[in-house]
Amino acid sequence: QLQLVESGGGLVQPGGSLRLFCEAPGGTLDRYLIGWFRQAPGKERESVSCISADSTKTDYADSVKGRFTISRDNAKKAIYLQMNNLKPEDTGVYYCAADYLPHPTFYRDYISRADYEYELWGQGVQVTVSS
Question: Splitting the chain (131 residues) into consecutive groups of 10 residues, what average pLDDT does each group show?
Answer without folding.
Answer: 93 98 90 96 96 96 98 89 98 97 86 95 97 95
